[in-house]
TrEMBL record:
Stretches for region Disordered: 1-23, 94-128
Domain Ubiquitin-like protease family profile: 121-287
Coiled coil: none
GO biological process, one term: protein deneddylation
Entry keywords, A to Z: Hydrolase, Protease, Thiol protease
ATP-binding is among the record's keywords: no
GO MF entries: cysteine-type peptidase activity; deNEDDylase activity
Record's keyword annotation contains Protease: yes
Source domain of life: Bacteria
Protein name: Ubiquitin-like protease family profile domain-containing protein
């Protein structure tokens, strides 16, 4: 049971953080255990030129033998090359067109960030305006597109806009994984209007697999939780995951915190290791369009086609 607002402390904080600069890259195994990435730099040599590129032919069998090739197109295999983080992804023809996707490291570590590890192509840029061709989305990218969408909705459908919340990813993280006091405080900031009334019928909550307690678990995957609260007694949380099953645990934690019944929702599956965040923002926009058109909207996103270039253009302004 959550405490009353009077019991909450103003200084309660529960923000995810990145691992300190200089530590080896980490990733989260399916078991949820943080593991150090295997550095394969010795296989390619010190003269390796960093950047996204096809997996060299001579590496294919070696990676297979070391069990470092991904088992499907939807789940990338993180590795390190001479201290830089990469993800190995399979193309439409499987291992024959496998790619090494480079996630360049910034010169400094932001104070609190989820979704994009210390490997973001936009370096120290926290405006959310810069997004690379294969860059993982950070919370700043999701939040900027959500702010743009909220502004668009206020202009086109003020009634729906007043009942809809596009939740800051860091705020969603606090609700799902913060202390109970901090989570309740964040929840009321989300659903209450300026007069303190709960007016939120629809919550769009980005879900991330980062950890609030383990600094090495800085997040590798985004998914989307749409909470329909039109019936306050029986809210429903629809979970859209473009790598089906990956974010089941954090989604369940978040749904439980907002008191909603969790349901898996159909969404098309990503074909690379870096577009999960694009699925979140484009999926949100598709659902908002449908909610604006009719009260009983079709919430199936099986046919969703994402457009990273369009997102880059929106973010740039």
């Amino acid at each position: 049971m959550w405490p009353t607002p009077q019991e909450m402390r103003d200084d309660a904080q529960s923000a995810p953080v990145l691992s300190p600069a200089g530590r080896p890259p980490f990733f989260i195994a399916p078991s949820g255990v943080s593991q150090e990435l295997e550095d394969i730099g010795h296989l390619v040599g010190d003269d390796w030129q960093h950047g996204s590129q096809p997996v060299p032919d001579f590496l294919l069998d070696v990676l297979d033998n070391k069990m470092l090739m991904p088992s499907s197109r939807m789940v990338p295999q993180p590795v390190s090359i001479n201290g830089e983080t990469y993800s190995i992804t399979l193309g439409p023809r499987g291992r024959s067109d496998a790619q090494l996707i480079h996630h360049p490291g910034p010169s400094s570590v932001p104070d609190a960030r989820i979704g994009a590890p210390a490997t973001s192509a936009s370096s120290g840029d926290r405006s959310g305006r810069v997004l690379g061709a294969s860059e993982w989305l950070g919370d700043e990218h999701v939040q900027r597109d959500y702010e743009l969408l909220a502004q668009e909705l206020r202009g086109s459908n003020p009634n729906l806009a007043a009942r809809t919340r596009f939740v800051d990813p860091l705020m969603a993280f606090r609700v799902g994984q913060g202390t109970e006091i901090d989570a309740l405080r964040a929840f009321h900031r989300i659903v209450d209007d300026r007069n303190g009334n709960d007016t939120a019928d629809f919550l769009f909550l980005p879900v991330n697999d980062a950890s609030a307690t383990d600094i090495n678990r800085r997040g590798t995957h985004w998914s989307l939780l749409l909470v329909d609260r039109r019936d306050r007694e029986r809210p429903v949380a629809y979970h859209y995951d473009s790598a089906r099953g990956h974010n089941d645990r954090p989604a369940a934690m978040l749904a439980a915190r907002v008191g909603a019944n969790l349901q898996d929702a159909p969404i098309s599956q990503q074909r690379n290791g870096y577009d999960c965040g694009v699925f979140v923002v484009d999926g949100t926009r598709a659902l908002v369009r449908r909610l604006a058109e009719r009260q009983q909207a079709d919430l199936n996103l099986d046919n969703l086609v994402v457009d990273r270039q369009a997102l880059q253009n929106r973010l740039r302004g």
